[in-house]
Amino acid sequence: MNILVCISRVPDTATKVIIGSDGKSIDPKGVKYILNPYDELALEEALRLREKNGGNVTAITVGTAEATETLRNALAMGADNAVLVKGDEPADSYSVAVNLADYAKKMNPDVIFLGKQSVDFDSLQLPSMLAEILGLPSISVVSKLTIDGTNVSAERDIEGGKEVVSTTLPCVISAQKGLNDPRYPKLPDIMKAKKKPIEEIASNNLDARTVVHKMEIPLKERKAKILGDSVQDIEMLVTLLHEDAKVI
Amino acid sequence: MNNILVLLESNKNSLKRVSLELITAAKSLSANNSAKIHGLLINADASNAAISAEYGLENVIVAKTGNAEYSSTANASVVAQVAKNINADVLLFAANSAGLEVAPRVAVKLSAGYIADCTALTVDNNQIMAKKPVYAGKALITTSVKTETKIFSLRPNVFTAQKADTVAQNVTEFTPVLSAADFSSKVVSLMKNEGKLDVLEADVVVSGGRGIKGPEHYHLIENLASALKGATGASRAVVDAGWRPHSEQVGQTGKTVSPTLYVACGISGAVQHLAGMSGSKTIVAINKDKDAPILKVCDYALVGDMFTILPILTEKIFEVTNK
To answer: Does A220 contact B278 at a Cβ distance shorter than 8 Å?
Structure first.
């Protein structure tokens, strides 16, 4: 089974965001970058499928040379191959999808995994977009996956519950929390990953279909009324919520 | 802007609230031009959209896929065909589980730029400007689409559905051309968490953090949520400890919520949690630590032992809500 896992390099979720001097992006100074948490779930699922069915797992990312480090994380977790589609910082999700699709067309994977979203731009569109370009079915936000021959059955999270979706290989799957517990790479694997080759191909720097004009930190004035824990204070809170904020 | 197409979703013989929010958003986009608004309902009777007349939706298009099982690929094909048929140049979707799967496919089919999960849309010099939270809400971008056809999905619960002058509706049927390939994936069954409100759909969310000390105390959170007719949420620490299911996690690697009232109990307020709830209208924190970060972003706080506070607060709230 040939499996393609699309990953991305994102700021750690504990990052405090500071706007950069261009006013359109974050200031990367002091920011720790990690493998997107949802992509870890995607990669883990791919590794488990390989362990069960044989085959190989290729991790791919679209970005600058700095994404090499993220690919090394994937190799340390157990990916067989790593591909950097190297170019400028991708302009938008569509340009990433086209670059990924170009590689997928050559590789012809049985299944393509992605995280349900990358925790930077939270654009929530790459899995379905990639699948549409490739003419493949897709199931997104998957928290349980069963592949039996070419039959695929997946549980996906929806508002207030789950739905079970069925399709057939080849297909695109996006991973949600609960799908598995990703493994921690062991030190010898981290060392070995540093020596593995990373295939580099030039990205097709497409014109973006969307443009960012401004990035800002949302400001919301909060009342910040601090009360204690006496019965009077609790009653006062209820009164404030009822009469002042009018939320109950 | 000439024609705006809104994908409607129905539930229990009426429209979902988010569909009415989309109609109001479409109306505000067309306020200073003559753009026509069309609502598309797939695999449901036009009567389900009747309520939209009260929100000023004049044109309802009904399309049947000929297959009772839901398929995101088939729905994407239907939307794209209808969009071409009416020359839609703006398409609006709900940024919910259905819309987020369909919209990117439609964007590819129509060669359109797409911005997901918008929290505001305005028209500036004839250009639609969208605001969209990034980094789970730690930052906000103002962005626009460059292609002729523009697609946006709107975050539920953020736009207000506003009643307008009731209009006489013009209902048309559209017959899509679909092949077996359009049904390559399909929903075979649904598992609803019966009687349990989802944090994404609730007006009130009450969440517990590490301060709750163990799953055996979670009834305190549930009781308060029930007094407020809200849903229960949880911090990442609580979910990672296995005390609560992933579906309740609020934060950057969980759900981003924007309820009218958010109550954080025993949650210190890590950056990644604040990212998931800072869009809430009113925030209440209950915490024993007066220096906890959550106290800097809340509207009201009770500083003290939540095990003492919660039962009293629940009782006092019942007194108000049962009046």
So the answer is: yes
Q: What is the pLDDT of residue A221?
A: 84
Q: Is residue A94 part of a domain?
A: yes
Over residues B85-109, the mean pLDDT reads 98
**Nearest to residue B279, comparing CAs of B156, B161, B197?**
B156
Which residue in B has a C-alpha nearest to residue A15's C-alpha?
A: B271
Q: For residue A154, what is the DSSP state?
A: E
Contact of B246 with chain A, judged by CB distance below 8 Å, is answered with yes
CA-based nearest residue to A1, from A43, A41, A40, A57: A57
Closest CA to A33 of A63, A10, A62: A10
Q: Which of B185, B252, B261 sits opposite A137 (nearest CB)?
A: B185
Taking CB atoms and an 8 Å cut-off, how many pairs form between chains A and B? 263
Nearest residue to A122 via CA among B312, B123, B252:
B252
**What pLDDT score does B12 carry?**
86
Q: Are A71 and A122 within one domain?
A: yes
Task: Provide, as residue numbers in chain B, all residues whose Cβ is less than 8 Å from the Cβ of A94.
Answer: 107-108, 113-114
Q: B195 to each of A17, B255, B265, how far by Cα in Å?
A: 38, 20, 23
Q: How far is B170 from chain A (nearest CA, A)?
A: 31
C-alpha closest to that of B117 among A115, A247, A118: A118
Residues of A in contact with B144 (CB under 8 A): 210-211, 213
pLDDT digits (tens, 9 = 90+) for B33-50: 889 999 999 999 999 999
**Average per-residue pLDDT in chain B?**
95
Is the C-alpha dihedral spanning A88, A3, A194, A177 positive or negative? positive
CA dihedral (B291, B296, B302, B307) in degrees, to 10, reads -60
For an interface test with A, which of B278, B282, B307 has the most A Cβ atoms less than 10 Å from its Cβ?
B282
Supply the range of the domain harboring residue A11. 2-202
**Chain A contact present for B127, CB below 8 A:** no
Q: A5 and A113 in contact (C-beta within 8 Å)?
A: yes
Statement: residue A132 has pLDDT above 80 = yes
The percentage of residues in chain B with a pLDDT greater than 70, rounded to a whole number, is 100
Whether ipTM > 0.85 holds is yes
Residues in chain B: 323
Domain range list for chain B? 3-183, 204-321
CB proximity under 8 Å: B 147-176 to A: 147
Report whether A12 contacts A48 (CB < 8 A): no
pLDDT tens digits, B276-308: 999 899 999 999 999 999 999 999 999 999 999
User: Domain total for chain A?
Assistant: 2
- Answer yes or no: CATH 3.40.50.620 is held by domain B3-183: yes
